[in-house]
Amino acid sequence: MLFKYNYEQQLKRWGALFSGFALTTIVYFILFKGLKDSSLMTAENKQLILDNTWMILGCCMGGFTLLMFILQLLKVNVLKVVVLAGTFALALAFAGNDLVNFIGVPLAGYSAYMDYVANGAGIAPDAFLMTSLTESASTNPIFLVGAGLLMVIVLFTSKKAHRVVQTSIALSRQSAGEEGFGTSPVARQLVRISLNINNAVSQITPKSVKDWIEKRFDSSDAILPDGAAYDLVRASINLVVASLLIALGTSLKLPLSTTYVTFMVAMGTSLADRAWGRESAVFRITGVISVIGGWFITAGVAFIASFIVAIILYYGGFVATLILTVAVIVIIIRSQMTFSKKQREEKESTDQLLLTNKDINQVLPLLQQHTNEQYAEFAGWCAHVYERASDGFLNDSASKLRKANNKVKNERQTLRIAHRVSTVGLSQLQEKDWIERGLYLQQGNEIVMDIFHAIKRMVEPTFEHIDNNFEPINSDQLAEFNGTGQDIINFLRNCQTTIANQADIAPLVAESNNLIRRIATIKRNEMQHIRATSASKKVDLVYLTFLQESQNIVAYSINLLKVNKKFQEN
């Protein structure tokens, strides 16, 4: 991008001119294009602007450039002025488009009602023609101001709106770190094709040209405030270009989505800025596909839902209207229940603090806290899943095993995100903490994955066996393991408590050794049972797998406690 190469020098040389041009462009598209059809723009003012367009633009360009140059002499970062102006321009562009969509339908109904009151005397409501709606709308400014204030309040208070912004920022941020989306076959194929094209072009490109291109992407001198996703150059371009495109499309009466335009501008500048590296491209392409696909799905669902609601209201009359109104109120109340959301947001804020924290002395305590919480939560998850899986297998319950199997599938992505956050936090540690802490953290994360795979290897065959209605284990096997299974569940819960409180692990070490010996004895007895019986061996082999993975879970869990204790030591 423009200022990436030798950031400070380029900013001093071209910053005032760039800022003046950006502000002038904002004035042109917002004042000339965006407000030309506004009810606040009188015919005299509109004609005055049209007659003196180039003179006004020339004065704006010279005045803004001079102002930015003076601000630069006063040590003011002029890009902050552009970002501020771009924010206002984007807000105005959104208001010119989304505000109309927001209040257009109710205002049309209000206008139709007022027209009927004024001119519909003696005419039945369903026989009165709404010809007045074919004329240009003249909206009372009070409605516009009220709707605008309502939109501002919603944007400040809506958690969903905040998550939309966070998604856009996360997909376009400059640094690597936690990725909120997984991978998809389409994304992997696109990345592979792009890499092949890049390799082919690189082979025929002269070295001097490649060196010049590399210099243009040198961001070592870029000014990136603490916690910022990207620098002020990209922020300026995002705001200015998005607001101009929206204002231009609105003035041309094009049906456009302001959120889509803003999102795609952010994605385009991040791609052009090399924010998508080989380690993050597949995740971010998947995110873009998911977001865009979600919009198309939403459009289709909204179309079908609107049709269904219209049919219900048409044939159901007042009763249907009342029922639908109550249903909408219930849905809104349920969607605003914030207990679980607050817990998730607190967890996300802790992870984000870990990723964006720049005080190197605070990284290790935050990383230790994050790791301890993740390990304790994982131990609790293990106890819960193991209880469902063992109960389902021992008592021939396919529904419990199905729930356990679904939880295993959902946990993989959670573990990947947690480990990615840990890795990013590890890269921010001081040099004296890097090697020893890094080894313990890496070992702990590997043990977590070992436990996860042990549970997965236990749940999948037992679920398949019970779900296919195969022979369950006999009463002797059930009686022999039943007490041990409950002890394993209690052991895993004690592991969760011990990790959370950072308590002494010695009692659990002794308990784990006892459990491992007991399971080994049960396995030997089962082998003798297999040799002595002539019945089907299928359930016996599944039972042996269940015993072996139970033993692995206990052994891995105690190793996790030991490694975490080493990592948490000061």
State the end-to-end CA separation. Answer: 44 Å
Principal-axis shape: globular
Q: Give the count of helical stretches.
A: 18
Structural class: mainly alpha
Helix content: over 70%
Share in β-strands: under 5%
String of helices and strands: HHHHHHHHHHHHHHHHHH
Largest sheet: none
Q: Mean pLDDT, rounded to whole units? A: 79
Can you describe what's shown?
- By secondary structure, the chain is mainly alpha-helical.
- It folds into 2 domains: 229 residues, no CATH class; 213 residues, Methane Monooxygenase Hydroxylase, Chain G, domain 1 (Up-down Bundle).
- It is 80% helix and 0% strand.
- The protein contains 18 helices and no strands.
- α4 runs parallel beside α9 and α13 runs antiparallel to α18.
- The protein is globular, with a radius of gyration of 32 Å.
- The chain starts with 6 loop residues before the first helix and ends with a helix.
- The N terminus is likely disordered.
Supply database-style keywords.
570 residues, mainly alpha, Methane Monooxygenase Hydroxylase, Chain G, domain 1, 2 domains, 18 helices, disordered N terminus
What's the SSE blueprint?
Layout: H1 7-34, H2 43-51, H3 53-73, H4 78-119, H5 141-157, H6 159-172, H7 185-204, H8 207-216, H9 232-251, H10 258-272, H11 281-335, H12 339-356, H13 360-394, H14 398-427, H15 431-467, H16 475-501, H17 506-532, H18 538-568
Give a quick rundown of the structure.
By secondary structure, the protein is mainly α. Helices cover 80% and strands 0% of the residues. The protein has helices at residues 7-34, 43-51, 53-73, 78-119, 141-157, 159-172, 185-204, 207-216, 232-251, 258-272, 281-335, 339-356, 360-394, 398-427, 431-467, 475-501, 506-532, 538-568.
